[in-house]
Structure formats: C-alpha cells, structure tokens
Write a structure and sequence with these properties.
By secondary structure, the protein is of the alpha+beta class. The chain has six helices and 14 strands. The radius of gyration is 27 Å and the shape is elongated. Bound molecules: copper (II) ion.
Length: about 300
C-alpha cells in the first residue's frame, strides 16, 4: 500500500513539475527582447528549452530534498547518525546516464540551430554581384535566396555600411522578409556586431570578411552595439538599425542624398567637448578615428 502511494505521489509530483517547467519555458520567450529576425525565433526556442530543463531539474531536486526532510526526519531526541546510504549502483547509473543524455540533447539541438543560423564565419565568401538579376547569381540557402549584400565596416569608434549602390551610409537599413548577407570587416581592432533583437553577436576581425545571413521579420528601429571592448569609446560605438518594407527600403536608398556628409560619431565629438574632469591624469587615450563620410560613393576604395 505504502509503495503504491509513493509511486502515485511520485507520478503526481513529476506531472506537476513537468507542467510548471513547460510554463516557465513558455514564459522565457517574454524575458527576451522582441524577435526581429527569423533566426531569433530559433535561438529563443533553445533558450526556452533550456529554461524548461533547468526548471525541471531545480524543482525535481528541491522536491526530493523537501520530501526527505519531511519523511525522513529523526524522531525527537534521536541523535544517532543516519544510515550511510552509498554505493547504490542503480542510483549512480541513473545519476550519470540521465545528465549525459540531457547534455548531449542540448548540444545536438544547439548545434542544429547554429547550423541553421548560417554563420559563415571566416569561410570563403562568394560576393554577390547585386546588380545582376537575382535569379542568375544569388546563392540559395535552404531554398530562400539571398537578395542583398551589405558590407558593415567597423572602426574605432564608428560603423559604416556599404549598400549595393556602392554608397556608404552610417545607418543600417534592412528590407523585411528578405534574406540579407552582412559582410563584416574591421579597419583596425576587434569589434563585435550585436543587435539584441536579432539575437546575433558576431565578432569582427580586422581585414577579414566574416559573413552572417539574417532574415529580418519585424519592422522597427533597433540599435547596433559593439559587443567587444574595442577601445576607450567602444560604448559609444552604436548605430541605428531600421527594418522596413522593401518599398520603404528602396525609397530610402534612392532618397538618401548623395551629398557627402560627415557621419555623426559620438566618440569623435566627445574629445572635442570641454571635459568636466576633476583632475587630469595625463594618460594617453586612443584618439577616435575621424567620423566617416557618408552618402559618398567616392569613399569606396
Ligand atoms: Cu568597436
């Protein structure tokens, strides 16, 4: 009778913590910034999965500890040592096999999603000849053609973007529901391309092209940050990112005046401002690079 009761209790306990873990996993989606790319959905799925698994393990262990405290308490005044339960092969096997399976599952699932994210890294990059009709030259990845290639140039401390029309601009505009390849490169030190809503964080290596492929799905304005400590002003190394309809994107590309202008660059402005420092340390700092000239087709070497 006692055994049946325990088995029933265990079954109910497992069902309850499974329910709670699933709920926490669903809640985990709301802990993240909005999903602005199709890739973000995939990343959030694994995050949600890990949140569920973590919750299940936490509740499972806490439940067993509470059950032991309640049911295995020594009677009042009994100060003798408890039975030294060790060397149970069944328990040891269970305790080794289950986590191993879990870790392998998470590893395989993560690798699968990583593969899907098409982070091409330092592999040989076939540059698209954008001006040619899409059907002729675009590289097909899982059936969806890449329609745009935008070069992202990082330098201490500013971003510039080279669009298919070979003009540099200091804002990243992306047509929605198109598959876009961003080719990242740095002019000086290591930088990091990071847009939280895209769930992409990609390091940028000086003088090396690294490509990532993204699929923006949510219109809006976002902020590109530098995820690497690339010098004194790395925190100021930010740029506006716009995901918009194809039509709006084309209009922006067309409308952007070709009047070469100096890009706004907070890092370049700050040293020129009157500093409010209490004392001058006389420490040398890395002078930020000159702001990029944007809307200027001459700047492409
Ligand atoms: Cu940087």
């Amino acid at each position: 009778m006692r055994k049946t009761l325990n088995a029933l209790l265990l079954a109910v306990f497992i069902a309850v913590i499974l329910g709670i873990s699933h709920w926490v996993g669903q809640e985990a989606y709301s802990w993240m910034p909005p999903q602005a790319t199709a890739e973000a959905k995939r990343v959030d799925e694994i995050f949600s999965f890990l949140a569920s698994v973590g919750t299940f393990i936490f509740l499972g262990i806490t439940g067993v500890i509470l059950y032991s405290i309640i049911t295995c308490r020594a009677p009042k005044g009994d100060w003798t040592h408890g039975h030294p339960a060790r060397g149970s092969a069944k328990l040891e096997t269970l305790w080794t096999v289950v986590p191993t399976i879990l870790v392998l599952w998470v590893a395989l699932e993560s690798f699968h999603i990583y593969e899907e994210l098409n982070i091409l890294g330092l592999t040989q990059i076939v540059h698209l000849h954008i001006e040619e009709p899409a059907s002729a030259n675009t590289v097909h990845i899982d059936g969806k053609p890449i329609t745009q290639e935008i070069r992202v140039i990082a330098s201490q401390s500013g971003w510039s973007f080279i669009y298919p029309d070979k003009v540099t601009r200091n804002e990243l505009h992306l047509p929605m529901n198109d598959r876009i390849r961003l080719v990242l490169n740095s002019e000086d030190v290591l930088h990091g391309f990071y847009v939280p809503e895209f769930r992409f964080k990609q390091d940028i290596v000086p003088k090396r092209d690294i490509a990532i492929v993204i699929d923006p799905i949510r219109a809006g304005q976002y902020r590109l940050n530098d995820s690497q400590f690339s010098g004194t002003n790395f925190a100021l190394m930010q740029a506006n990112v716009f995901v918009e309809s194809r039509q709006a994107y084309d209009q922006w590309l067309m409308a952007a005046t070709n009047q070469p202008t100096l890009a706004s660059n907070q890092a370049a402005i700050e040293p020129t401002q009157q500093s409010k420092r209490i004392f001058n340390s006389h420490w040398q700092t890395v002078q930020p690079v000159e702001p990029t000239i944007v809307n200027d087709s001459r700047s492409i070497t």
